[in-house]
Give the backbone structure.
Amino acid sequence: AQEEEKHLAKEAEAEKDHLETEKKKPKMNGFSAMVTIGDAIAPHPSQYTIQKLNSFEYIELWYFPPEGCKEAMKTLHPIADDTFSLAKLDNQLTIQPSSAFKASRSAIPDHELSFSMFLQAKNLFLMQANMAKWPQMHLDDLALFFWYLENHSICNNSKFSDLVILHYAF
C-alpha cells in the first residue's frame, strides 16, 4: 500500500511538473481559416490629397493612381514629419502637418491624364472620398459618371480612347 501511495505521489508530481512546463511554453494565437489575406498593398495618397478630400475641395485625379501616389510622396518627403502649419477648420484654429498643404509640382491636370491612368485613379479616388465621408449621393453620381467615361463609345477606338476625358472635361 505504501508503494502504491509513493507511486501515486510520483505520478501526481510528474503531472504537476508537466502542467507547469506546458504553462511556460509560448502559445500560438489561433486564426480564422475563412479570412483571406490580400496579396498587394493599396497605394496611399499624400496627406495633401487626403486633406483636400476631407475639405471637399477639388483635387486632380493624378494624385490617386500608383504613379501619382509614389511621385507625391517623393516630392513631399523633404518636408519633415514634425513640421506643422496653422489652419482654420470649422471656425477653429488647428495645427496640421505641413505636408497637408503642399501640392506636388508633378501633378497633371485631369484632361491630360492617359485613359489607363484615369482608370486606375478613379477607383482609389472613390475609395478615399468614401473614407472622407463624402455624401453617398455624390459618390454614386461620380461612380456613374466614371462608368459612362469608361464605357463611352469612343473607347472602342484605341486610337482615340485618351480623348474621352478631354471630351468630358470641356
